[in-house]
Each structure stands twice: as structure tokens, then as C-alpha cells.
Amino acid sequence: MASTASAEPIGAAPALRRLYVIRFVFAAAWAALLLLSGSELTAEAKLLLFLYPAFDVAAAVVDARSARAAGPVKGLYANMAASVLAAIGVAVASTSGVADVLRVWGAWAVVSGLVQLLVGVARRSMGGQWAMILSGGISVLAGATFIRSAAQDNPSLATLAGYATLGGIFFLVSAIRLSRSTPTR
Questions:
Q1: Sequence-ordered list of residues with C-beta below 8 angstroms from that of 95, at least 6 positions apart, any chain
Q2: Which end of the chain is less packed: N or C, by CB atoms within 10 Å?
């Protein structure tokens, strides 16, 4: 007979796997739409820039609900707070220009990357988390790069599409690895 403690991570794994696949699809679609919107801060681009961190909030809420039984979710709450602030910050920054958007996005990428790294480390026993740990570390570095690139002449939003695409790929890899490392009942 399996203990409740060992059954809880297994029960959370299918929900987490589905969430990771949804996050991959969203990130890929979002990146394509951002690239199609061009380099100007049009109304469409501003909406997309707001939607990404807003979607991250929703994903963290779903993640926290499914993971509550499997362990602590403080990191997910920290991610929700950072993403809410990022959505508001990006909305405000988008009225000033691409450089300000990159600064806000960069700060968010650093904070959310650290959180993702720590949550991935805490979830190691579930399996499939090495991609989340690596993604969190890369997010921290990418965030610093966004902040630095904001000071360049003619900064571009295109780097954000690459960031979202890479992050989405890490979510997909983690979903695949999670399904391989999680025993079925």
C-alpha cells in the first residue's frame, strides 16, 4: 500500500505535465504573434506584452492549486506577485517606449527565473525538473541581458520572442521528462 506522502507528487504530476504543455503552446503562439506585430509598440504589441506575464499569473495559480497537496507553494506565490507587478509594469512602460519595456521585462525575468530555479530544485523528486532549473538560470541571465540591451541604440522586442520560445521549449522538455519519470497507476 502506497503512503499518502508518496502518492501526492504522483497525483500532482499529470496536472503539472498538462500545464507545462499548455505553457509551451502559449509561449510559441505568443512569440509568433509578437514577431508578426513588428518592432513598434502598437496596440497589439502592448496587449501581447501585457498578456505574457498575466498568463504567467494564471499558470502559477493553476500550478499552486495542483501542487498544494504535494508540498510548499511559497515560490509559486512569489512568482504570482512578481508576474502581477510585471504585467502592470509592462503596461505602464509600454507608454514610454521599447527600452522601458525591456527594463521591466528584464527585472521580471531575473526574479521569476530565480523563483523557477528554486521551485525546480524543490520539485526534483518529482522528476523532469532539470529543464525548469536550467530554464530558471537562463531566465536570470536573459533578464540581465534585456536590461543591458535597453541602453543600446534602437532596442528591439524581438529578443522577447526568442526568450518566450526558449522558455516554452523548456516547458515541453520538462513535460516529456515528467511523463517518463512518473509512474502510472
A1: none
A2: N
The DSSP letter of residue 183 is P
Q: What is the pLDDT of residues 95-107, one digit of tens each?
A: 999 999 999 999 9
What one-character DSSP code corresponds to residue 95?
T
CB atoms within 10 A of CB 64: 16
62-110 confidence digits (pLDDT tens)? 988 877 655 567 888 999 999 999 999 999 999 999 999 999 999 999 9
For residue 173, which of 135, 143, 144, 117 has the smallest C-alpha distance? 135
Nearest to 54 by CA among 28, 91, 18, 19: 91
Angle at 157 between CA 153 and CA 163, to 5 degrees: 120
E strands, the chain, in order: none
Cα→Cα distances 123→119, 128, 132, 170, 182, Å:
6, 9, 10, 15, 13
pLDDT of 9 strictly over 70: no
pLDDT in tens, 136-178: 999 999 999 999 999 999 999 999 999 999 999 999 998 898 7
DSSP for 59-128, written as a single string: HHHHHHHHHGGGS--HHHHHHHHHHHHHHHHHHHHTTT-HHHHHHHHHHHHHHHHHHHHHHHHHTGGGS-
Query: Which one-letter DSSP state was computed for residue 157?
Result: S
